[in-house]
Amino acid sequence: MQTSPGTAATILPIGSDADLAWARHQVRQAAAALGFGLVQQTKLITAASELARNTLVHGGGGHLEITPVAHGKARGLRLSFVDTGPGIRDLELAMTDGYTTGGGLGLGLSGARRLVHEFRVDTRPGGGTTVTVVMWLAGMPVPRPGTG
Amino acid sequence: MSVPSPGYAAPVPVLALGDVLLVTLQGDLHDDTAERLRQDLTRRIARHSGGRVTGVVIDISGVEVVDSYLGRVLAEIAASARLLAARTVLTGMRPAVAITLVELGLTLPGLLTALDVERALELLSGPDPAGARAPDAEGGG
Amino acid sequence: MSEHDAAPGAAAQQVRAFLERRREQIAQRWADAPLFRTVFTVSRDEAVEASKAVADALAAVAASGRLEDITAAGYGTVREQLGRTAAARARTGCSPARIADEVAALRAPAAELLRAEFPDPAAPRAQECLLALALLMGTLRLVVMETALSTGEDLIERQRQQLLEATTPVIKLWDGIIAVPLIGTLDSARSQVVMENLLDAVVAERARYAILDITGVPTVDSLVAQHLMKTVAAARLMGAECVVSGIRPAIAQTIVHLGIDLGAIVTRARLSDALVYALRRLDVEISGPVPAVAGRP
Q1: What is the distance in angstroms between the Cα of C237 and the nearest Cα belonging to chain B?
Q2: Which of A129, B18, B30, C172 lies in the 20 to 30 Å Cα band around B58?
Q3: Is the domain of C60 the same as that of C113?
């Protein structure tokens, strides 16, 4: 994955309910600007909503970085959710459908993963969590490593 | 969870049509608004002493994104309505939202669904199949 | 981008001068090379003109000194010119590798002319110039190769998309009943298109029932079954019911073998059975015997 030159990242704070709504709005704008179709837009915004809520609820807040990316001819959008919270102790468990510590449906991480093309979690106990997802524009040859 | 939050989120109006409550959701819903709607509806179903509420129709044709939080709130509304002997019908879900929810793993099995409000009211005026599960068991021949 | 040590500016400039001076002769020879000859079959003049354009472009690149840079400005014209030529070759079934070979074959005639420029072709200066030309032609080969590959990709992608759209029609059978007759293999991309088309039609036709007829689908693996179930689930969320018809005995067995539970899905043997089911649920009265329309193509 490489960042196309001259495209700056948008950085948004995630600290409240209103920030979640704003993040969804900004992801929609960015996805629409890149030419994503309605279904892809909806999937990406939903994934962003799940992950931003994770950042807020479990990470104690943080920020979202929205970056347009390019790989050969393929165009896409990368979203990074960064917090400095307690980290995830058992990542495998956290990725399981239905596992929850926050009173939700436990679909946050595992569900979001199914909505995007690339998904990566970097976490350390006590060292915060960064979840990075990438969605590629449909109709392009997509570089697609195992997404499970 | 029940702590009132700073008033950014505008409340959702609930309309009473006879013994049916109609809610129309629009645009991007804040978590707070959804949660408050859940409490509102549950209270109104329980309190509606004149004639009982037999159904709740939630129209989401104006909603562009339903994530697992809103999904959970909708499922909880249906579950509490059920306890108070009312059925909940979700109507007007957009194709993109439906595809996303299925991919997310959220199929809302406890909720009845209809294409639009008219059909939802039709559905509610029909017999209440025991258990009020997915629509499979009703109608026919 | 870096310049090559063995081709310092002087040699590159000499090659540029050579390309400009011998433009006509080079073009005449190239016009007879397979790359141009096979594309411009009608008029040799056109082949000569195309060859000249390539020679000019190479001269421009040589002038810039960036012999090994496939992004050099001069290659822009070559890309377009040879891109069209290569695309024409590709359409006749020529592989990118073969096209690259044909481009490589342009080097020999040009090198021959260049060698003739020097009284002693073995002199260091002559060797430098020949090397510079070789570099230039090598880069040209890369440029054409890249263009040919991406043209092919674009073409395939466009055709694939058209095919997807064309092979998944949604038909309105009755007020409130739509059907998608699926024919051919269902892969992931096509299943996605089927799902989106079907759900859009549910909205557009206010359809309460959607029939997915898989009579024409040769095999159903677990992925396809999963897609069918997702489509059914998504339609239900919207307030429509899906009926899957045309599950042939062999496919039914496969589904059982794969351990897939289609229990939550309404299935009927034939499309006509599914239609009858939907009509009855809509309280449409059917008089006379239920039509026995064949379910097979």
Answers
A1: 6
A2: C172
A3: yes
C235 near B CB under 8 A: yes
Which residue from C minimizes the CA distance to B117? C239
Q: How far apart are CA A124 and CA A89, in angstroms?
A: 7
Both tokens of C233, joined, read 């689930």
Domain residue spans of chain A:
10-136
| Three-state secondary-structure class, residue C42 | coil
Tell whether A39 lies on the interface with C, counting CB pairs under 8 A: yes
Residues C91, C35: Cα–Cα separation, whole Å: 13
Q: How far apart are the first and last CA of chain A?
A: 19
Residues C148 and C230 in one domain: no
What lies within 8 Å, CB to CB, of B51 at 6+ separation is: B18, B19
Is residue A73 within 8 angstroms of chain C, CB to CB?
yes
CATH number given to B14-129 = 3.30.750.24
Q: Give the residue from C137, C10, C142, C103 showing the smallest Cα distance to C63.
A: C10
* Nearest Cα residue in chain A from B104: A111
ipTM over 0.90: no
Q: What is the span of the domain harbouring residue C81?
A: 9-160
CB pairs under 8 A between A and B: 76
Mutation target for B interface from A107, A110, A135: give the one with most B CBs within 10 A: A107
Distance CA B65, CA C81 (A): 47
In CATH, A10-136 is 3.30.200.100: no
Q: How many CB pairs under 8 A join A and C?
A: 8
Query: From the list C150, C161, C196, which residue is nearest A73 (CB)?
Result: C150
Q: Is A81 on the interface with B (CB under 8 A)?
A: no
Verify that C89 and C206 share a domain, yes or no.
no
C157 at interface of A, judged by CB pairs closer than 8 A = yes
Is residue B9 within 8 angstroms of chain A, CB to CB?
A: yes
Six-digit token pair at C245?
């018809």
* One domain for residues C203 and C131: no
Q: What is the DSSP letter of C78?
A: H
Q: Is residue C44 part of a domain?
A: yes
Evaluate whether residue C111 is within a structural domain. Answer: yes
Collect all residues of chain C within an 8 Å Cβ-Cβ radius of residue A43. Answer: none
C196 touches chain B (CB under 8 A): yes
* pLDDT tens sequence for chain C (297 residues): 444 444 458 888 999 999 999 999 999 998 888 888 877 777 888 888 888 888 888 888 888 888 888 777 778 777 777 777 777 777 677 777 787 888 888 888 999 899 888 888 888 888 888 888 888 888 888 888 777 777 777 777 777 776 766 667 889 999 999 999 988 877 777 888 889 999 999 999 999 999 999 988 888 888 888 888 899 999 999 999 999 999 888 888 888 887 777 777 899 989 999 999 999 999 888 887 765 544 444
Task: Write down the residue that tokens 């899906």 correspond to.
Answer: C242
- HEC string of A4-20 equals CCCCCCEEEEECCHHHH
- Reduced to 3 states, what is the DSSP secondary structure of residue B52? coil
pTM of the model: 0.69
